[in-house]
Amino acid sequence: MDPRELDWLRRVRDLSQRLGSEEDPAVLPGVILDASLELTGAERALLVAARPPDASGRRKVSILDSVGFTRDDLAGNEGALSRSVIESALEGSGRAVLTTRPRDRELLAVSSLISAGVRSVACLPLRVRGALRGVLYLDHRGSEDLFCERELPTLQTFATQAALSLELLERPRAATEPAAARFLVGESEPLQALLSEVQRVARGDEPVLLCGEEGTELGRVARELHAQGPQARFELLSCAEPPASLARRLLGSPDKPGRLGADLTLCLEGVDQLDPDLQRVLATTLAEGTYTPLWSSARLPLRARLIATTGADLAQRCDQGTFRSDLHYRLDVQRLVVPPLRQRREDLPALCAAWAQREGVPLEVRPGALERMRAYAWPGNLAELESELARLRARGLAVVTAPDLSQRVRDSQGVTLPGADFSGRTLQELREDAIRAALDECKGVKTRAAKKLGISRSTLYHLLARYGIE
Q1: Tens digit of pLDDT for each residue in 245-279?
Q2: In terms of residue numbers, what domain contains 35?
Q3: Crossing angle for the helix pair 381-394 and 348-359, to the nearest 10 degrees
């Protein structure tokens, strides 16, 4: 893949995530313009909001923010910004204007752009679910070919994220609160932050990358995204499926369209396990917006909204050569990170109650048991919690006390490592970190630390001497 295109994809990913993390909607226009200048190298930028067309078909427009323009530049019919460019981009449902295209080159001949010395223009429609919300205008007075056709899909991806972010400006503050969750349970701050991101991302049609540790609710977050979006159907495909079978389901055949061509939310579970040939196919599909069915030469439009889940470090996989960088960046434009259970221990009562309701069984977790559960690190996350609850149900327990819990939970074994980033670190380093974390959590009491680590006290003393830990 062209290194320049790969760099653009990486930068669009980073800039889009910056937009998504901005907490104050009022500063979003400025953030969008600064990001667009950084991405393209343009000299000037303008963000324009557009209302739906009136009875005569005309749209009322207003300037949200600008960079590089003076007040006189933007005033009156003879301002240095050509209204012809804006009107061209607002035609119909909106179209991208690039003056490197022959059809748009003539727009540079209008007097307002000539007088400003503008030699290159890009004007991108801002759409949300097919509705035109405005345009992003960029220009340069030195380069004639700054905005290339091959970079248009990447530019338009960024413009779509900008449009999604600008929706926040049009909503009352109360309307930006997370919608009632259907598949996720809890009131903890990390979960509510995730639900806010789900609500924002669900309004678009760009790919989403869901990341989380083993056992977190990746599949449920995917279903929550679907439930808050416009698609009617949801389907989950495992990337661990044999490549030939998965290819048939994704791509289809001349007489049976594949899932990529269906109007649905398509969740690719464990995308890090995707076969290299299918990685290439998917990267091309996302880049071009079309795909080729098996045993056919026809190109069909991509209609599915893609959600990919992974518990792996895809950036590390790219460095190792086992995952395509271009596919990573095309999937990673919208990234949501599912918090581990240890970061939302206050949700444990609600999660237990939700599991009991879903299974149709009575369950009461007594305070003593709940205290032990909150002290446990839950390295297997929700999957481990539900396994523990299923074990208790199998014993016929409707009331759970501390002695009923498995020994690992009862003794609060398991240590939470700060950051939990294992890439590039040796087993010896991780082992030393685990010992230090256990001692810190147990306030230096070595007997408790050994129990938390699941080792004998004599083994702990041996390891303390080996690593020089006082």
Answers
A1: 999 999 987 777 789 999 899 999 999 999 999 99
A2: 3-170
A3: 50
What are the residue ranges of helices labelled H in 233-296?
Answer: 243-251, 276-288
CA distances from 309 to 68, 222, 223, 268, 280 (A): 41, 8, 12, 6, 18
Cβ atoms of 100 and 147 within 8 Å: the answer is: yes
Say if residues 325 and 281 touch (Cβ distance below 8 Å). Answer: no
Pair 216, 270 in one domain: yes
Task: Check residue 16 and give its pLDDT.
Answer: 67
**Residue 417 scores a pLDDT above 60:** no
Out of 164-173, 413-422, 440-449, pick the least confident.
413-422
Own/partner long-range contacts of 414-422 (Cβ < 8 Å, ≥24 apart) = 414/376, 414/377, 414/378, 414/379, 414/452, 414/454, 415/377, 415/441, 415/452, 415/453, 416/342, 416/377, 416/441, 420/213, 420/340
Predicted pLDDT at 173: 44
Let me know whether 260 and 136 are in one domain.
no
Over residues 42-71, mean pLDDT = 86
Q: How far apart are CA 111 and CA 282, in angstroms?
A: 45
Tell me: pLDDT of 174 over 50.
Answer: no
Closest alpha carbon to 415 in 385, 382, 378: 378
DSSP H or E segment with residue 15: helix 3-21
Of 133, 151, 170, which closes a domain? 170
Do the domain assignments include residue 392?
Answer: yes
**Helix (H), strand (E) at residue 31:** helix 28-40
pLDDT-based confidence at 297, cuts 50/70/90?
Answer: confident
Token digits of residue 63: 């300037």
Q: Name the domain count of the chain.
A: 4
- What angle do helix axes 446-453 and 457-467 make, rounded to 10 degrees? 100
The DSSP secondary-structure symbol of 85 reads: H
The CATH number for 352's domain is: 1.10.8.60
pLDDT tens digit string along 456-466? 788 888 888 88
- Tell me, yes or no, whether 400 and 453 share the same domain: no
Query: How far from 187 is each of 41, 347, 350, CA to CA, in Å?
Result: 43, 6, 9
- Residue 415 inside a domain? The answer is no
Q: What is the pTM of this model?
A: 0.67
